[in-house]
């Protein structure tokens, strides 16, 4: 079969957008703002004044490593001694060496500290802005490592083709040419339907807009939602650290293994950039600071998979099934007893209504599946990209506490800024009274 035969289904004049939702570029940043700032307000610490300057005010510390503003130690959590006494903190450096770091609680009455205390969600906004800045640097670093833009793009194209051939080894069947790639066949199915004018016209448009709009706003929306609704701040921090470590691992891959997405491969391979074809490209997908070779692993799917896992876990459905198996099959549970040490967040999760649990479980399954169809149907990722993202998230979850190694750095940063980290308003800390 010749190359011309492979692409013989292309309409005369090429594929054309048959439907499009026009949207100004400023809409997407506005969506982010409409998510972040209302979230900042809704998660504020109530009954707390920014400009109060009572010198007798003190912070109360909790027995939770992730719930305290600036604990004296990474292992001890107690009330501060007499106001005005600010002993240094004790931290573990890489889990090996105990070091002393400055205690920034002496700056708790500074105006910028009190603003953070009133709106603690600002801390989350800062760290995610930092992650965005690191992402934007990956393209420049990859270009530096590969010795120029041309060499980087050539290597990225080879990496993309290698992924396609690796997949074809398992499910090419009797197909030849681009048809041996499942991503190609899926996108062609949508394109043919769009050309014919059937319901796939709208479906493809939804996929295009979904790819452009869901990734950043959806993830930011999830962080906002979970900050406000997580049973405990410790649970929120586990999720946040997992997402952060997922980012770091992915950024390393973007730098060391730049990978060209299917839509940017040579036209002879037959993939179509449907998002750009419909002028549905997001402001987050364009510009000189965007890394267009950040296909492996797929952070679209990585975020979606992590979010889906959180919803499934918080639905309590899986935990409930495990409990039933233990009780009725393994017979290891006693229905007449109650474990006084049961984790508080599990108690809260168990209190959700059956309808809410069913919705959360269904959404947790549906969301990553939808994103997988979106990234493949629009030729923005390979299936292996999604698989790599799954392993990246799982690895990040298992080792998420490794990020606590940066606590000493955070202490010094807070000290340099003369700033005290606020008590969060997630879980039981929402009701904490801070004077």
TrEMBL record:
Keywords of the record:
Membrane, Transmembrane, Transmembrane helix
Domain Inositolphosphotransferase Aur1/Ipt1 residues, every copy: 200-310
Q: Where in the cell is it found?
A: Membrane
Which chain regions cross the lipid bilayer?
26-43, 125-146, 210-230, 242-259, 301-322, 358-376, 382-399
- GO CC annotation: membrane
| Record InterPro entries | Aur1/Ipt1, IPC_Synthase-Related
- One Pfam family, short name please? PAP2_3
Lipid bilayer topology: Multi-pass membrane protein
Coarse class of the primary localization is: membrane
What is this protein's name? Answer: Inositolphosphotransferase Aur1/Ipt1 domain-containing protein
